[in-house]
Amino acid sequence: xxxxxxxxxxxxxxxxxxxxxxxxxxxxxxxxxxxxxxxxxxxxxxxxxxxxxxxxxxxxxxxxxxxxxxxxxxxxxxxxxxxxxxxxxxxxxxxxxxxxxxxxxxxxxxxxxxxxxxxxxxxxxxxxxxxxxxxxxxxxxxxxxxxxxxxxxxxxxxxxxxxxxxxxxxxxxxxxxxxxxxxxxxxxxxxxxxxxxxxxxxxxxxxxxxxxxxxxxxxxxxxxxxxxxxxxxxxxxxxxxxxxxxxxxxxxxxxxxxxxxxxxx
Length: 265
Known about the structure:
The chain is an alpha/beta fold. It has 2 domains: 2-192 and 231-257, Rossmann fold, CATH 3.40.50.720; 193-229, no CATH class. The chain is 45% helix and 15% strand. The protein has helices spanning 19-30, 42-55, 71-85, 108-133, 157-177, 195-202, 211-222, 232-243, and strands spanning 10-14, 34-39, 61-65, 90-93, 139-146, 182-189, 254-257. A 7-stranded parallel sheet has the order 3-2-1-4-5-6-7, sandwiched between helices. β5 (139-146), α5 (157-177) and β6 form a beta-alpha-beta unit. It is globular, with a radius of gyration of 18 Å.
């Protein structure tokens, strides 16, 4: 069980106020890590912090507003985190939702916005925390990515292209950072329960359908072999594995968390 204990480790989770990010924070705190979270929305950040402090009253937790797309903001957050909790050895890059658009209706501005969001939400935090990560012999970066990186959808052309680029970036960083003792991996998520899916459920036409029936029908339509949507906690478990010493000989890799939806080799 020693490999599961992260006592003495300091972790950072961007986008840690909801969904997969919040589930990851909970798991890291549960296993003894000190954790820093950030978000642009102060109200949502305060709500997440209150929930976490109620669940883990003895945990070391630091929360601060931060825009991961602002290099100055993320640098300040890195310095604040180090002052509050100590030197970071785990970074989870988890930010950004998908953009629904085809090639024909994606404007130049939309392309620029989407590519900037996906790339720099990884680049800026990694750049800011790398000096701290390099102080540890077994540091880890985990990037939350989408199955779109390997299995693009025509109605999400910009996001699919950006996700593929991040998958490549993970491999490049893994190779470059390996001599510095920093492992870099990612996960590829499929359909995961989220606020977005809950809102679609609330807007369903057949109000007699419960959540299980509605998501089961959705999974069947999407041809997910496991027949359901994934849970944020299931994605968090894959992130935890890649962030912990359990995966000490793994770098430049991705774990598929899609319930069998993946068709790529």
